[in-house]
Design brief:
single chain; about 140 residues; alpha+beta; 5-stranded antiparallel sheet
Amino acid sequence: MPGSAAQENGRREQTRFIEMIFPEQANHYGTLFGGHALSLMGKAAFVAATRRARCAVVMATSDKVEFHEPVRVGELVELTASVSRVGRSSMTVTVDVVAEALVSGRRRLAVRGSFEMVAVDAAGRPVSITADPIALPEEEVLS
């Protein structure tokens, strides 16, 4: 199946977010609350899937979310989401959460998960995803 120019060059389009972790996002241990991490990951998966499908999408499932390392208050998290599979109306989006200590710059994979996103119409019914998204050349995007 044909892919986008970026996929043909060996890399997938990625959606990235950076978030600072504050006390209101933490649990009683002073680390990122798992529910808040899932919320951030769901947002990243939503944006990546919408960019790929260029229509409304909803989350169908979250699969195998693995919490590898705690994220402490005061650290940054960088979320990277990429569409790893495209079906007729669904997509699998993989999201990595990398924690970074601001002072030392130490980075580590904190959380990884995958999400099944489904393209839907205005009534919430699944719709087909186009085989090849419309992509603008980088020069047009940056100008």
